[in-house]
């Protein structure tokens, strides 16, 4: 059973029942009187009734009160609304930002709660259906909650209760706020008739009502088209947050752990804070850092960048673990700094157990590679002939064999299929990873390379010359690290759970083996694939990314626990995979796998845009600039009927009192 | 004797009785009485008033032979006299529930009408009896409930007082059946006095029609209380009929009171017209007035007493 309008019922009951009781009392008040004969009285009453329509309305205070009371009730039933804002009947898309920055507590409770409250007020102010079910004049609205993705909470309806429920259902997340997808969704819905069509033209433009702090990424190349009403939520900017964090093991000394973190200060004052490093909830180190105020490093005062401090820790940790970096503002007595956003105060990273790499080098004989990788600190280097490798690749046990190696280096070898793994490929790239080989070109020199990338750390590629190389077109998501004149030279590509470092040339066709940079590149590539590519496991991820676990028993239920829920059941697919998209809050997620060890995932906010909680007064879309509404979304349509009903009740009460006093006369 | 005298004084004060002694009941018609009385009759009979002579026939009483005529004419003639007969007075007293009730809340007025009616009945009975009329007194409600028949002379006064004082007002009224009983049990003709409020739901016409006629000289005395004549009530009331518990829910307003009064006067006028058209006399009495005034003034004016 569902009550669509429980409040109306309660109001009606609250009015009707006392009235009924009053009338009951009034009826009881008819005094009984014994007389000799009722004959004449009855005749008199009959005469009176017969003549009543022709009687003049006598001056009767009771009648006056009764009339006023009835007028009040009738007016209440007619549903008058005090319209402070006389907007025409319309369709509204209510967008509620529930990204990370909306969790800031500069407004009591949180910004999201305030946004929801204002959204509720807005919904209350819509013209609803009247008592008599005339819906033509009712406003329609839909509710979308958005962070980096959008969630339609409620399609176009004019039922306020449904809209209010949809708003109540919006939950906080730590995601980024992006509007593009949301606007597309909103426009798609706006052009299709809602649940209640009411013959309303779907072309009627829907107004967008945005409840946000205005920290929305990428709005400047976004055209909204329709009208946007922006309600800015939030006041303060004071926040301290971890905006970057990484924990990795040294490639050379795997027990050594280096943790890097960047702490950003968004307040106007310099702020000291303790940065605490803990592994598996055991505090290992604490560093104090004084973080400069925002805007201190920028010349352009309009666009304030936060003050940032990078800290690094290095310690020895022999086992696996969860690394946590947490910044704790130190409050001086003369400093009223309040860290309004708690979600970005900590970041986590999953530290894999220390491990040296097992590497397979597949080549027809390449002394440069063999000697270079032989010099790397590896657990095992297996050199396999290309032909053997290609033959073996048809075997069923091939995948298991390949799985024994952390990295496989392919030197001019093109097997038909590659098992999942991490590859360093020299020469022509394999098929099926989206790289298109368009031909072979000659005499190429390096024109640019990303020297900051960890793969090319200390690698000077200035002198690299390739007599011939593969000309290829990379898919869009490939990361190009070095470029020849006409084609990418070195790139990183992730496909189907595998990672590839593609070097589109045979090292023997270049002068590279004679350069020191070649040795460094080989070293770096092993370190990169061995350590940084741990992200292949996707143990370290950002909010809203999907947790993926493969190699599970198909159709079996697994339990996942997260920071905002204790246990949720997940059913593995037929292929034995689990996909969990509910990583809306930053924190540690764990999937209990009975047959293996528990998988732990660190979901971090690590977003400068979300940590920057300073509310924006204007949102600059590409087609227009939208200023925040000066007043909060208030209830512009105030229903008057409860007051009328109350006045009617009072009138009836007064009438009753007067009547009683007359009775006593 | 002392006991009974005390009882009649509960109804009539001695001074009032003294005034009543001078009065007599007057009938506008000459009725046939039964016994020799103080009233002239059409019949020839024994009295001092000479009427005519007629020839003697065998069997006539020799005492009435006019011997003077015999001496002159030597023929026997009988002297005939106008016979003086008594007058039958039938007083019907309403003792139904409505008589005992009063719309007023004040306890003193509760049985105002009852007292008035009994006192008036006693006064009329007194006047009739002391003048050697034959008085029959009946009380009625739902039919005749009590009767004292054929009282004559002062000796019956205590009995009459006892009868009136012991009558209690209760029960519904049925005027038609009352009249039926009264007429069927009555012998002879005379004066019929009805003391009542005449508020009969089934109507008074049928009953009065039985009482009115050549034989009877009807006096309808309607006794109403001041609250019936000028109601002083207010508010929303549920009026309950004392006789049949019928209810009338009213909200007192000036309009309602206006209609009530209009109805009351119409009712009284109808009754009056009904009576006068049939040779009866209608008198409206206000129970708050003194019975003395009624008897000594109004009843003389309508020639019931002289």
Please describe what this structure looks like.
The complex is a heterodimer of chains A (665) and B (306). Chain A has 665 residues and is an alpha/beta fold. Chain A has 5 domains: 6-80 and 649-664, no CATH class; 83-235 and 615-639, von Willebrand factor, type A domain (Rossmann fold, 3-Layer(aba) Sandwich); 240-354, Sandwich (Immunoglobulin-like), CATH 2.60.40.10; 358-536, Class I glutamine amidotransferase (GATase) domain (Rossmann fold), CATH 3.40.50.880; 540-604, Immunoglobulin-like. Chain A has 12 helices and 33 strands. Chain A has a 9-stranded mixed β-sheet. In chain A, strands 5-4-3-6-7 form a 5-stranded mixed β-sheet, with helices on both faces. A 5-stranded mixed β-sheet of chain A has the order 24-30-29-26-27, with no helix packed on it. In chain A, α1 runs parallel beside α12 (641-664), α3 (61-77) runs antiparallel to α12 and α4 packs antiparallel against α5 (160-168). Chain B is α/β, with parallel strands linked by helices. Chain B has 2 domains: 2-30 and 87-301, Rossmann fold (3-Layer(aba) Sandwich), CATH 3.40.50; 38-85, no CATH class. Helices cover 38% and strands 28% of the residues of chain B. Chain B is built from 11 helices and 10 strands. In chain B, the strands form 3 sheets. Chain B has a 6-stranded mixed β-sheet with strand order 5-4-3-6-7-10, sandwiched between helices. Chain B has a two-stranded antiparallel ribbon with strand order 1-2. Chain B has a two-stranded antiparallel sheet with strand order 8-9. In chain B, α5 packs antiparallel against α6, α5 crosses α11 and α7 runs parallel beside α8 (205-211). Chain B is elongated. The interface between A and B is medium-sized, with 25 and 39 residues. β1 (31-35) of chain A pairs parallel with β8 of chain B.
